[in-house]
Amino acid sequence: MKLLKLIFVIIVVLSFQFCKKSEPGKPIPISDKQTHIPPGYDPSLYRNKVIRANLTGYDRVNDIVVDSTDNSKVYLVGYFDDSVYSFSVSTTGIVRFNSNGNNFTAYSNCFFDISSLSNEIYTLFQSSNGDHYLGGNFYSATPISNLKFARKTPTGSIFTYTLDLNGGVRSVREQGGNIYFCGDFIQVNQAYCTPILSLSTNNTALNQVGGLNTSTAKRMEYFNSAWYITSQNATGYVVSSNGGLWAIVGTGFNGYCNDMIQADGKLFCGGSMTSNRNNSMPRNYVNEFNGTDWVKVGANNLSSQCLDLEYYNGKLYACTYNSISYYDSASNTWKNACGSGIAFNNLSKIKFINGKLYGVENGSFFELTV
Asked: 106, 163, 176, 104: which is closest to 134 by C-alpha?
């Protein structure tokens, strides 16, 4: 008799729970939501796009640099002149963005003459002591003129240091207490040099890196005790130097190298390549250096050449002209990072800012949300 009563109580309780779940107007418990995700649905995909700044005409953003003292803030640099309508502040060439308030502020009182399409800012770098180094090909910044590479102290309002280079600076890094920079130049102070130079942080010693003049450089990374740079004007290679001669890395590429980053202790290069230099081995638009040569990343390939690479939360992201993808290491495939409702046109840059994904598309600076 007691057993029958116990069975009856259990049946009543289970019936109550079943009715509770199906009762109209009651929210489904979180545990049940997880079991009701439609097949193939990926809750991590970005499905919404919000324009934060709409640049027009020839205006463009070349680089997005996260503030090393506050990862919710970034610096946008590029070619934009008198852009009060785009950023709601009057600024030229460089502007601050706060992702918490989604607002822009002017950068100090530095205004750059970029009235010509050949004059623009390529990148900004913050050194470990807080100094700001600006690279590009721009005309003037009071009181220094004809700048390619300039420095400003954390508390300063103007740039006080520059070099006589015959081409712009594309990339800046720091290693072992020295600032390294590379770019379109092959002369410094009217003397021929390699396209990567080092500068002591107190700005007293300027040195060449490597013992052989190479093509101008676009990107640079310090990896396994050597410097690696991508070519700016020549196809086919990444070159490296550990202080000696520059040498081609592996068997090279048959296309341009647009970006190079370190992620998870590995070196990746993205670009327009489809094989090595002599077309004897296939390459993807994104490749990993295995210590000897480059190997394809992913069993499939991106839809078009890789323009920019990002690494966030254990995932490698790649930007093409019309898509953003991430590498799924479990399946060894590239997958779309955005839902079908988002379309892109002429993407050029992506960046994670304080856990949020932003990008540059055809002159517009936008934010993606899930």
From this structure: 163
